[in-house]
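Q: Second attempt. The first request was missing the SMILES, so the protein and pyridoxal-5'-phosphate are both included now.
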Amino acid sequence: MRIYNFNAGPATLPEEVLDVIDAELHDWQGSGMSVLEMSHRSTEFTAIATQAEADVRALLAVPSDYHVLFLQGGATAQFAMVPLNLLRGKSRVSYLVTGEWSRKAVEEARLFCTVDIAASSEAERFTTVPPRETWQIHPDSAYFHYTSNETIHGVQLPAMPMIDSIPVVCDMSSDILSRPVAVGRYGLIYAGAQKNLGVAGVTVIIVRPDLVGAPQAGTPSLWQYHLQAKQHSMLNTPPTFSWYVLGLVCQWLRRQGGVAAIAERNQRKAERLYAAIDASTLYRNPVQPVYRSRMNVPFILARPELETEFLRDARAAGLVGLQGHRSVGGMRASIYNAMPEQGVDALITVMQDFEQRHG
Ligand SMILES: *Cc1c(COP(=O)(O)O)cnc(C)c1O
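A: Got both inputs this time. The predicted holo structure:
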C-alpha cells in the first residue's frame, strides 16, 4: 500500500511518474536497455536530456537566450558557484536572510567576497520577511540573493521583490514549478531537484547568459556556468537518471495543465491545511500569514508531550514524514506539487481526530 509522504526532500513523487519508471526500467522505449545503463552521449540519452530541457523551458516560459543547466552538487554547490561566476570583478553582494537556507548561502558566499545582509528576520525567529522598505542593498553589489521559500521555517515570499538596479538571484529549491514566475526578470534561478522536480542528484540552473562569461580566477572548469552551457551540461558525465526523472516529472506537470494549474491546486491544499490549523487550539503555525509557505507547513502542538503519539497515529493512518526539522522541532507537512489533495485531506482528518481525543 502506498502511503502519503510529507517529507521535505527527498520527497514524494507523482505515482504516475513511478509507474513510467517502472515500465521503462529494463527497456527504455525499445532501446533494449535501461536509462541507468545508457551512455550520456548516446542518441537515446540525448533525446531524453533535450526533451527535459525543452519541458523546463516550456513550463516556466524561459526566455530563449537564457541557459538552462543540469548540474551536480545540489543547491549547496550553487551557494559557491553563484558568487564564483557572478562577481564579475566586484567584491560585494547583498543577501536577504529569511531562514536557515539563506543563512547557509551567506556563509558560503563569505568564502569569496563581502556579503552585506540586506535584511534579516532572524530576530523574529524566521517567522516573517522584513518589510521591503527596510532592506539595504549596497549599490556596488554584484547581485542580490534571496530564497523564495524557506523549506525549514515555512516562510515564502508571495512575489518576486522589486529590485531594478542589480541582477536578482533566487534559490527556488523548494518552490520551483509550484507557481508562475517571470524568469526574464531574474539573473539566475537555481533549484535542487529532490523537492519539486524529481530525485536527488541534479540541480537546475537558469541563467542570463551575459552574467556568466567571466568567472573568478581559479574557478574549477566544472563550476564555470559558461563552459557547462557550451557543453550542454556534459563537461563530464551528468547525473543521467536524475535528469531522466526530472523530465518525467515535467511531462507529468504538463499533463496536469502546467504551472498555473498546479499553482491553483497548491493554493487550495495550503489554504485548507492552514485553515484547519487556525481553527484548532492544539495546533499552531507561527508564521505571519502573508508569508506562509504553500509548500512546507510547520505546526507546533500546544502540548509538545503529545508529539510522539501524534506521529504514531499519523503513521498508523498511512501518513509519514511529518516530524519537523531537527533545528526547529514540532511538525512539518511538505505538500509539494506531487502531494495529492487527498493526502492533505487525510492529514487534516488525522489532526482533527487527534485533537478531539486530546484537545
Ligand atoms: C534542500 C534545500 C537546499 C539544499 O539542497 P541540497 O541539494 O541538499 O544541497 C538549499 N536551499 C533550499 C531552499 C532547500 O530547500
